Amino acid sequence: MKIVLKVIIALFVIGIILIGIWFSLDKRAKCKLIYGKNICNFYEMMDTIFSNPENSDFEKAMQLCREMEDVPKKDSCFEYIAQAVSFYDAEKAKEACSEIKEFNGVHSKEECYNVVEKSKEERLTESSVIAFLEARLQRNEEAALSWFTDNAKVQYLLQRDFPLAGLSNPHFADFEILEREKLDGAQFKFKVRIYEEYTGQGKVGYFDETLTVVKSGDKYLIDSFERSEYTNL
């Protein structure tokens, strides 16, 4: 009986010590113990870059990527930094691209450089189109309408056969940007493809849309749209 009691007391003391050690660890150490270095470094890099973008600690973010052990994840980390900082410092973005190892062809230095070379205006326009399409996939019509100019809203009201959000079945399942073209002034034209699917049955068809995007204040909004005929798969 005494031996059992001693074992219980010893386990209790060890438990108290382990709890004390756990609470003494900082947030980064706890994260690494639970999720591993790759995931924790990636998320810490994101916090570092976006805490104050134009004054973020670029070197710290780069070092966090260098410390990652999985090469494809490391390449993804550098690619993320390049895309984030390219809005305000193209040279730093190119430095991040240069670190990509192109392991198994998953990530490419050339593609990274191409993203950096895009103008800030082009990338902001594309991000607006993606946000508009994502809102539609989530069936959030209010959010999708927020990316319309007044002109596009009138056009939408006059064309009620133009659903912004898919039905429950079939529903909008995926999209891809097929073409991008800069028009005169601060206008862009995007051709996008939106796929529909039935739950559990995969994609059943798609339609293409041509979106004209214009600058409105400090945002880029959809000013007009045109939809193609539906294609069944």
Report on the structure:
With 233 residues, this protein is α+β, with helices and mostly antiparallel strands. It folds into three domains: 35 residues; 82 residues; 112 residues, Nuclear Transport Factor 2, Chain: A (Roll). Strands 1, 2, 3, 4 and 5 form a five-stranded antiparallel sheet that branches. A hairpin with a 4-residue loop joins strand 1 and strand 2. Helix 3 packs parallel to helix 5 and helix 6 packs antiparallel against helix 7. The longest helix is centred in the first third of the chain and has 23 residues. It is extended and about 85 Å long. The chain starts with a helix and ends with a strand. The relative contact order is 0.07. The mean pLDDT is 82.
Topology:
Elements: H1 2-24, H2 27-35, H3 37-50, H4 58-66, H5 71-85, H6 90-98, H7 109-117, H8 120-137, H9 141-145, H10 150-158, E1 171-182, E2 187-198, E3 202-216, E4 219-227, E5 231-232
Antiparallel strand pairs: 1-2, 2-3, 3-4, 3-5
Helix pairs in contact: 2-3, 3-4, 3-5, 4-5, 5-6, 6-7
